[in-house]
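Researcher: If only I could read backbone structure tokens as easily as an amino acid sequence. Walk me, if you will, through where the backbone shape changes along the chain. I have put the entry right below:
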Amino acid sequence: MTGLWVCVAVLVLSGGYGLLRARRGGRLKVRDGGVRLSERELGAPLGERATLVQFSSAFCQPCRATKRVLGEVAGMVEGVAHVEIDAESQLDLVRRLDILRTPTVLVLDADGALVRRAVGQPRRADVIAALGAAVA
């Protein structure tokens, strides 16, 4: 009978952790760490108004959906660029920015300063709101 209670406790705790992680994932949070990225580091030009930087990996399913969302938003807002970076090929940058999971999305202003950061797949409305903060 004790084994059954242990099993139930493990299931409840892991389910709670899964719900918490799903709820917090993809939220664009304000970052004030003085991080600034250059065109050389990104391997692509910065957008005139803002840049959406996506760190992805080859076998990441949410990365594909995130790429589609960011591409659509960048196409809707003039002066916004979307840059996708393969996390496995840019390990120095990944370590410097403390990227622990893919997809990770960074919203940069026109000067390359980090304005918002999301771990997980962000919603389109959240990306548009973060761009509003970046171009203001």
User: Anything to note?
Assistant: The mean pLDDT is 85.
